[in-house]
Amino acid sequence: MSEHVALIEHLVAMHRPTTRCLDVLDSRDGTVFARVGDVAVDEVDQYVLRASRAMSEWGELTVHARANVLRAVGDFLEEHVEAIAPILTLENGKVLDHARWEVLNGAEIFRWMGEQARAVRGSVRHGAAPGQRVDVDRRPAGVVLAVTPWNFSLSLVARKVATGLAAGCAVVVKPSEITPLGALVIEHALLECGAPRDLCAVVPTSEPAELVERMLAHPDVPMLTFTGSTVVGRHLSELAARHLKIAHLELGGNAPFIVLDADAVDAAIDGLMFAKLLNSGQTCTAPNRVLVHESCADLFLDRLAGQVTRLRTGDGTDPRSDLGPLISGAAAERARARVREAEAQGARVVCRGVAADGGTDAFFEPVVLDGVEPGMAVYAEENFAPIFPVTTFSTVGECLELANRTRAGLAAYVYGSVPTESAAVVDRLDFGLVGHNDVRIVQPSVPFSGWKESGHGIELGELGLAEYTAVRSTVHRV
């Protein structure tokens, strides 16, 4: 039996029995390849109670013991990457190289947060009156509800769980019903590395809206962390406000990718290919609008086309595939419809990648569009597909106006060969995370915060860890 099949069987067996099962579909052909427990809404109170008890047990450990558990989880994920990656490919469709990247990213997050768990910082200062000392310290926020999407079923869970546990919290994870196995891998890894049972409790469910609403109404769940669409995030923000809960939201993006001059083209193409094609373009930080100075537009399009025409879409488990299928046939049809609409409005298809042979209707070959205008949906809305919409500009002022013309403010990228010029563009972008001549911007140590309608709250970094804590100030007379 292969490693990943044995691990799938273990994940299914370890999940608490329920009266219902949730089918997990093979991304290649839509067949069922695993069944996990389907948590009912009326089970929520039991999960919260067990998580609260586990949090108390976690809190009795020294910070060094907790840090060691988190670091061990990172090592576990890295050691078992070849067993875990095929599971992500099966449930999501991403090619194996991208799945391996995701597992290793999750490992980095756990190790980094393990180090931070040793030093959740407070402060000591003098009070306003003579003889006063003020102690400011950070306590765990409590049981955290983490609602995670399908596109990164392991690494986004790792981001929320590792941070919550480093702060001393317990985390109940409601994964996407499409891709629950990545979250179960995290739960399994924590148990294998000595974490208390139920400290990370995964609740796959076929009733996500009802279960999340019940969790937010629970008095012992003070905080929600959510990654997903702006539409759903707005709804969850309203629910959280109704119950006076903290809500951290990482929502949709519409990232501009700016190329300022010809000398930056080669590096820009390399960066664009990685950032856009990771997980077949189904990433909130993926470049969604490619803005190229008119002086180098022809060169850029020629070299981009040379790369894209060689890309092969196919079975994610096939090492010959550069891209796997999109998450569903409906997602692929939306992408095709968006390209057709852009063509009808005057955009030009420069090239397409190599189409998949047979298989699911979720396959969508990458496409480069030239002559894209701001009024087109392919420019104004998040595409979540390997579509490269290219728009040209003539001045820096025009570039900035084009880039900032969006209600999203998650990520942006700037490539330029003259540092002072490209840095000036970076400084005037209205986005929470910017890559300057680099696209590898999401890192465990880098605070990540969306602006405008891309959410609020901070993930990752020391600032992200602080978000999972409650501040208590004690004034002493000494």
List the helices and strands and how they pair.
Elements: H1 3-14, E1 21-25, E2 32-37, H2 44-60, H3 63-79, H4 81-92, H5 96-116, E3 123-126, E4 132-140, E5 143-147, H6 155-166, E6 170-174, H7 181-192, E7 200-202, H8 208-217, E8 223-227, H9 230-242, E9 246-250, E10 255-259, H10 265-277, E11 287-293, H11 297-308, H12 329-344, E12 348-352, E13 367-370, H13 377-380, E14 387-393, H14 396-404, E15 408-409, E16 411-415, H15 419-427, E17 433-436, E18 451-452, E19 455-456, H16 461-466, E20 469-477
Parallel strand pairs: 5-6, 5-8, 6-7, 8-9, 10-11, 10-16, 11-14, 13-14, 16-17
Antiparallel strand pairs: 1-2, 3-4, 4-20, 9-19, 12-13, 15-18
Describe the structure.
With about 475 residues, the protein is an alpha/beta fold. It folds into 2 domains: about 5-250 and about 455-475, 3-Layer(aba) Sandwich (Aldehyde Dehydrogenase, Chain A, domain 1); about 255-445, Aldehyde Dehydrogenase, Chain A, domain 2. The protein contains 16 helices and 20 strands. It has helices at about 5-15, 45-60, 65-80, 80-90, 95-115, 155-165, 180-190, 210-215, 230-240, 265-275, 295-310, 330-345, 375-380, 395-405, 420-425, 460-465, and strands at about 20-25, 30-35, 125, 130-140, 145, 170-175, 200, 225, 245-250, 255-260, 285-295, 350, 365-370, 385-395, 410, 410-415, 435, 450, 455, 470-475. Strands 12-13-14-11-10-16-17 form a 7-stranded mixed sheet, sandwiched between helices. It has a 6-stranded mixed sheet with strand order 7-6-5-8-9-19, sandwiched between helices. It has a 3-stranded antiparallel sheet with strand order 3-4-20, with no helix packed on it. The longest helix has 21 residues, at about 95-115. It starts with a helix and ends with a strand.
